[in-house]
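Q: A reviewer asked whether we had any structural model of the full assembly, not just the individual parts. We don't, so I'm hoping you can provide one. Inputs are below.
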Amino acid sequence: MTAASPLPVPSTQASHVYDRLREDLLSGRLAPSRKLQMRFLTETYQTGQTPLREALNRLTADGLVEVREQRGFYVKDVSRAELAELTKTRCWVEALALRESMAASTPAWEEQLVLAQHRLSRVPRSLSATEFEDNPEWERLHRIYHRTLIGHCGSQSLIAFCGQLADQLYRYRRLSISKAFPSRHVGDEHAAIMEAVLSGNADLAVKLLTAHYQRTADVILQDEAIFPELRDKAEQT
Amino acid sequence: MTAASPLPVPSTQASHVYDRLREDLLSGRLAPSRKLQMRFLTETYQTGQTPLREALNRLTADGLVEVREQRGFYVKDVSRAELAELTKTRCWVEALALRESMAASTPAWEEQLVLAQHRLSRVPRSLSATEFEDNPEWERLHRIYHRTLIGHCGSQSLIAFCGQLADQLYRYRRLSISKAFPSRHVGDEHAAIMEAVLSGNADLAVKLLTAHYQRTADVILQDEAIFPELRDKAEQT
DNA sequence: ATTTCAAAAAATGTATAAATTTATGTTGCA
DNA sequence: TGCAACATAAATTTATACATTTTTTGAAAT
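A: Here is a predicted structure for the entire assembly that you could use as a starting point for your response.
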């Protein structure tokens, strides 16, 4: 509906650093629980403290950074408990948003969804055929697809909240090096959810969507690369 | 369960300004859509720009302040549409959280709820008997009561989101000078919700809770003091 | 009436100073 | 000799003062 913003681009340094920091946090280049020292940040991102503080405060609100009074900023830590809780919450809230979107369904929205699903299906999940290599374009379209599913619920704040949960969980996905993903036919799952929505079967759509999220979480929860305690526990047994 | 924080108090200026600004925003002393100029803020709150920027950024995340790139901070504007949307969202999300809280019910939680309701019932809604005068202690206990209702759902992020919605809606209540409130026996409504929870009747509890929120919104939606367009429309008719 | 240009006001960013926390090393005591 | 407590020093966060850039405002000219 709306094209890419024709606005002259914000252009403030704070926004630039915010974008760069955010990318580095989501990708895992800035490791969980790492301390974010001003010294390091100013040198790395070549900017002053004011824009950095601004960016860090915004990221704190996004749940990607943690601030401890008078002892600095830290990359938000990860844990199996948090992953489970975030997933649970996302399932609850997106189920709600999806039902409301469907209850207020319009042809225009259904067409948006068809388009989003189609575009996503035409882009490869991985850049490399032999090994898994994150495809930014796929991630972008994936994001739009899920945003569209809940986007017709009629609540900006609810949509924004879902976006935050999505970001936080996206970081877990990126941190997890699990190559099991490609074996899942996520494309089929997206198509199935769309079909349930188009057929007006809310219960089924919600069931498929939550299963979709839960499966992803289950894989990551078993990843020793991100949760070393799993390895320790296995050795004890 | 946990008493007042025994921590040595944050004590950074940014936190102090944040608290003061927040109070002034919620109370309406800083009027909606007013521009928040640094000059004015530094003089009013007697502090530098760095702590102020920090506070303003946090308040932006709370939805009480709006930031427009390169043209400063503004008190978030109010509108009938936003009030309706916030209320709708709050009903949806708290219904969800309440159901989950009840599904995971424990004696300890039920006792917490009984206590919260009891304490709230023992404090007068208004400081003055003749005219309505906001009682901070009642507001505090009211907040705790509603927080308790949803507090056992098992999701910190969901609780935090409900808190944000509550704050934003609280500002509408404070902005509205409607004296119609005292005529409502809100105390009875709180007691009825609690009883429905204790009896395990989730559908009833949710119905009472959402009706509670909706009634409040309906009163404010008709308040000409906060929405002048109502007066204009009436004159046209 | 509209546009252009210049002056001002205000937001953003840098550099420096103050206050607080963390780390280090020494002294006193068991 | 080992350990704990205290005082000191280093590092880091927080805050202030100053400089730069952008936006807004207002007047003059087309």
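A: Points you may want to mention in the reply: Chain B has two domains: 13-75, 80-221. The mean pLDDT of chain B is 90.
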